[in-house]
Amino acid sequence: MPLSDVSIQAIRDARALMPIPRAALLFGLRTVQRECGQVGSEEVEVLAELFELPPAQVEGVARFYDLITREPTAPHRFRLCEGVVCAVRGMEAVWDVIRDPAGSPVINEAIITIERGACLGHCDHAPAGLFDGVLVGPLDPPDALRLLTAATAGGISP
Length: 158
Ligand code: FES
Description:
This protein is α+β, with helices and mostly antiparallel strands. The protein has two domains: 5-64, Arc Repressor Mutant, subunit A, CATH 1.10.10; 76-152, Glutaredoxin (3-Layer(aba) Sandwich). Helix content is 46%, strand content 11%. A four-stranded mixed β-sheet has the order 2-1-3-4. Strand 3 (129-131) and strand 4 form a beta hairpin. The protein contains seven helices and four strands. The longest helix has 13 residues, at 5-17. The structure holds FE2/S2 (inorganic) cluster.
């Protein structure tokens, strides 16, 4: 998916503000992820050109951060923390509800990418999640189900 002129300009502006231009690469990766839903080979090439870096270096940074994906994601993205604190505080019960088709028949994965991941640094609100880049929690199963069904129904814009 081609990157918009607005995003390209935002990345150029961020690059120009940094004493070391490549310090803005993470901003560039996040911008691409948000707009394109992934950082695929085509997007890596675009960023490499913008930052005057070898594509392998851009890809190396992209692979280091697990919130940057090489696979396409849906317009909404929800990540449930599976870190130790969240595990102790009941994240599996939340996961069971949002992943059980019988328990969550209205969650459409074409609209929401649902995944598990490492500690989000929001342990004091465990079990915690990240919804479209916003930390949420503490979540209980009904909260999580309400959030994701509202997004599926279009009640929350990406
Ligand atoms: S363990 Fe879940 S946010 Fe830290």
